[in-house]
Amino acid sequence: MNAEILCVGTELLLGDVVNTNAAEVAKELAALGINVYHHEVVGDNPKRLKESLELSFKRADLVILTGGLGPTYDDLTKETVAAYFGKELVMDEEYLKLLKGFFEKSKRKMTDNNIKQAMMPEDCLVLENPMGTAPGCILEKDGKIAIMMPGPPREMLPMLQGPVREFLKSKSDCILTSRVLNVYGIGESSIEAELKDIMVNYKNPTLAPYAKTGECQLRITARAKTEEEGMRLIEPVKKEILQRFPNGEIYGENYESLFEAIVDCLCENNHTLACAESLTGGLISSRIVDYPGASKVLMGSAVVYSNEAKNKLLGVSEDTLKKFGAVSKECAAEMAENARKIMGADIGLSTTGIAGPSGATDKKPVGLVYIAVSTEKGTAVEQLHLARGRKDDREMIRNASCCKGAFMVLKASKQLKSF
Amino acid sequence: MNAEILCVGTELLLGDVVNTNAAEVAKELAALGINVYHHEVVGDNPKRLKESLELSFKRADLVILTGGLGPTYDDLTKETVAAYFGKELVMDEEYLKLLKGFFEKSKRKMTDNNIKQAMMPEDCLVLENPMGTAPGCILEKDGKIAIMMPGPPREMLPMLQGPVREFLKSKSDCILTSRVLNVYGIGESSIEAELKDIMVNYKNPTLAPYAKTGECQLRITARAKTEEEGMRLIEPVKKEILQRFPNGEIYGENYESLFEAIVDCLCENNHTLACAESLTGGLISSRIVDYPGASKVLMGSAVVYSNEAKNKLLGVSEDTLKKFGAVSKECAAEMAENARKIMGADIGLSTTGIAGPSGATDKKPVGLVYIAVSTEKGTAVEQLHLARGRKDDREMIRNASCCKGAFMVLKASKQLKSF
What is the DSSP secondary-structure string of B41-89? Predict the structure, then answer.
């Protein structure tokens, strides 16, 4: 079954509101194994809505609409869709009573235009709206299905994930199962060069790469009758990919990011982490804290943005700062070790470098970064050159430093565990 | 001139990514006075892209596309649009040289598929992409215009707000001038209630509110023959709005955020800042460090996520932690004061609270947050209740705490200056 998503609302056309509904409906349909090849947005205009609906039903059997169900004069979805199906709107007396009661209870005046909301296409399946006053509905005729839901996301979502999901499950015999492989250290185009045969040739499961900030995800998606069957299709593809990237580039499965992996892995290995951040400015700790469970793992981070703070908060010696400077492997090592010892953690991570655009010297260019990881077994420092001569270098250098540091911490925790 | 927005990308169709590009492009076109009646999303499929493009050009003269410009085999926007205009793709040798230079500089291997990005439709206007490797382009023929931009929002936005805006302005005989008023502490619907008369009735200049993370922007846009004329239209509207919000809610003009305001204002007042962050986890310092110039203002931040770190890194007394707990006004005050003194700053800011979902006690619920600001004149602590009982509370509570803290710092710097 093919579907299209048609969102109605002038506020969407003008960009006053971001169209999150389309993404939510799309995710739901994808999970149900229903193909979607088009999304449209039209304004509160009956002529254009009619034309879009007719076009959508030429291309697909299922059209999911959001918006245009309210009480105002420009809410015209039900009328337009009913007309396409050759149906009239009729008063749903039971719902009208409910609606009147609703207004009485909240002591609000029920204006005439609200009565519109109780007019429903004849023969439709009414969908209750516990979050608002406009019910949704489903019309079905001659193999074509239209599902109409309210525009406001907080009303649409429960309806979508409740009665609409149940209705669609009853229409489909397949489900989609996905697994994500998390990749660090190789770019999207190199990944594609290595996996192109799988990406192009495999129809079930499919393989798709997604670029994230400083890392990549490889999503393997299978269509089958059950989740178990789906997993059986996915396993061999996963094995094949792991064989092609044997050097630790695939750091995990189904993580949102390196930082979720840190919270998960360090918790599992019973390790704690203390950070000392200069150029990253708190970005590492704040990305770890995004995940509930961070408190089991993160002691804290000394964001020592100034040299004074490196010395006064973290105890980096004035000698080191004078002799080698803040951007040096010596300073990075001292920062990581001191953070670890002061906060009593198993692993210390530090970053120091030049994010730009200013701050470079003749010997130390923008993009020069030192990252150190310290454990009781010793301290490792890596030197990076991250500049690309581009306008967004500052942000990119900071992000890349965070990801590199996170990856080094994952490795350190693994090594520490194996001792 | 009528326009349509056509976003290309299977990740959009599947709902893996929310289509923020459509809203951004739509806002830009609305500000330029260009009517938009349709948005579409299609996947990385040449046949469907071609059909959508042909349909869009039947209905409109200008089509703005995002996505499908990258190096992988399924990036097909340029080819498809060029074919519609009867143009071939040709190698842009200059750009190819530039692209090779990028890869060499960052010591990454340039795979063959990257070369695709230097193939451009003949006779097109190339749009530089300082944030990525795929340039955009504009094709114009027989009254039809196609503008192609990259899919990733951080690449698309500067191109849209830079050369694309310039190009579209040149098609019109008016220019648009804007000023932004930065607002903190009032919600978008309250702002609308107060300013509805201006928003609905004024056609030139127009007034539009934009919700940002934890704050708002009011954009006043005037259309006129010159920028000076535009400013003359804007001034009275600005004055009117300032009169309606006389209590400091409007903290600045033309800032990207409260954090840019901090870097600017504290620099101007010659004040330095030290932070002590618990629940915000480094988010405050990392948002300040987003702005070049942060090093003039931010000494550092002690991200003391665990109680141990509060005591060992920042010297918060075990007594305070035992008697009042980490989430208390006493702890917040001590954190702010200690950070300020240890790092030798003029202003100390601290945050401590419960972001959730876990961590609440019977006396201390999720969303309870204390924020303290310390100067040599004294310490002020505010208690907040930020929970909304919603799924995104953790992220929202952290963000709201950052913004409140930033706003308090701006006030403190202003007060300190006036002593």
Answer: EE-S-HHHHHHHHHHHHHH-SEEEEES--SSSTT--HHHHHHHHTT--E
